[in-house]
Design a protein that fits this description.
The chain has 71 residues and is α+β, with helices and mostly antiparallel strands. It has 4 helices and 3 strands. It has helices spanning 21-27, 51-59, 61-65, 67-70; strands at 13-14, 34-41, 44-48. A 3-stranded mixed beta sheet has the order 1-3-2. The longest helix has 9 residues, at 51-59.
């Protein structure tokens, strides 16, 4: 949806400076996320390095949002 019509999403904050929060928690490393693999939660856009990481986030977002507080 975003790729076809980015306008409604343009004012959202990108979380973790565009890095994948799942990679940060599960792998302990910073990996760039992709706009094509994103989720919007609480007015913030989370980007993911892979579809698998995106699915992990969907299943338990609280686990990965906490990574923001650790930085």
């Amino acid at each position: 949806e975003f790729m076809r019509n980015p306008g409604p999403y343009s004012d959202l904050d990108v979380a973790d400076d565009g890095r994948c929060p799942v990679a940060a928690v599960e792998e302990g490393r910073e990996v760039a996320g992709h706009f094509a693999l994103s989720e919007i939660l609480r007015g913030r856009r989370f980007l993911f390095a892979s579809r698998q990481n995106q699915q992990r986030f969907r299943e338990n977002p609280k686990r990965y949002i906490k990574s923001e507080a650790r930085r």
